[in-house]
Amino acid sequence: MKRTLLTGALTAALIAPLSLAATAEPAVAADDAYYADALGLTGEPLRDALHDIISTGTTTLTYSQVWDALKNTDQDPANVANVRLFYTGQSRDADLNGGDVGDWNREHVWAQSHGDFGTSPGPGTDIHHLRPTDVRVNSTRGNKDFDDGGSPVSIAPGNYTDADSWEPRDQDKGDVARMLFYMAVRYEGGDGFADLEVNDAVNNGGSPYMGRLSTLLEWHAEDPPDAFEERRNELIYDTYQHNRNPFIDHPEWADAIWG
């Protein structure tokens, strides 16, 4: 538990005994109760505890309900009638959702084919990894793994791609990593879906793996959670699925499991 440290000058000034108020323990962090069974753990015990926590008492959305959820979770702070598109940061009318050019649609950051879960309630509708994305950008990314390198994507400046991987713009790299870490812990094969795992490979095809793990860990460290991502996590917990992404709340847990 964190405590405020006194500076040398302040310590010298406090000759009289400290009051009970001054020495009281700080309030327990808001998420300590939620993560109580995981605190102090590392490695597989930590992963197992987090899986149990984020899989308990959850609500599952239908694929149709995802549309309205994303209009809220990914609302553009500068224009509440719009959503902020993943991979580009563009602001687009929230009602322009669909499959036509100029629309935004539901991007599965953990590609549906990597585990063959489609759009079934569960991993296929889990909004912790579903983001609003321009239709053409979604199609260009396809089901590629994530890694550094490739050629610039003309319709999504800052993104790069090659035959088997996608590098998102810098502002989205940490988000990608934390979404994939969440999916790998949330879906362990015990609920009728494949056991999803992050690995240190690309071109994973239809297997239930997404990579490249070493690159994802770098992105996670370089692009820590921001206010937009934290707000999104709170909304998913409070309003929709009633579970959280642990790697937004406790970024240090990624290294504790995979580092």
TrEMBL record:
Region described as Disordered: spans on this chain: 141-170
Family annotation (InterPro entries): Endonuclease-I, His-Me_finger_sf
Domain of life: Bacteria
Swiss-Prot/TrEMBL keywords: Endonuclease, Hydrolase, Nuclease, Signal
UniProt GO MF annotations: endonuclease activity
Protein's UniProt keywords contain RNA-binding: no
A family per Pfam: Endonuclease_1
Signal peptide region: 1-21
Descriptive protein name: Endonuclease
